[in-house]
Amino acid sequence: MNEIYIWLTTFGAIGMAILALFIRLKAIKHPATIKKIILPPLFMSTGFIMFLYEPARPSTLQVMEAIAVGLIFSIFLIKTSTFEIRNQQIYLKRSKAFVFILMGLLVIRIIFKLIIGDSIIVEELAGMFFLLAYGMIVPWRISMLMKYRKLEKQLKAGFAVTAET
Description:
- By secondary structure, this protein is mainly α.
- The protein has five helices and two strands, in the order αααββαα.
- It has helices at 2-27, 34-44, 60-80, 96-116, 122-157, and strands spanning 83-86, 89-92.
- The mean pLDDT is 85.
């Protein structure tokens, strides 16, 4: 039964990655806003409720490992997320590398899950992957917010017509 859960969650992860890719590609067509940058981690934070369920709680070492891996993965997202000013509005700049990075992270995650999936119970593994994802999205979004604010100041000061960050 554990193997069925591993495969179901693997296909679920693939589906979520494809959905995230489509959402990201759609988002670059509209101006970025602070709300669009801040809200995803806030909405995702409701996932911490899973830790009220005892089997989903990883050990302290597993928590630190998951967050550390998330922080490392966030570097790739931070490097590929830049903004540009178009028509006096701030847009997220399309990055060809983002698609490959997202797919690469997905492949690494799936391989990691298949390797350790039998040695950690499914609920605990779900908690670890949630922490990994949260450890990845928070620094990424903070970086995006800082880049956005910098361009926003340039835009308000009238310095940037086509500036990029």
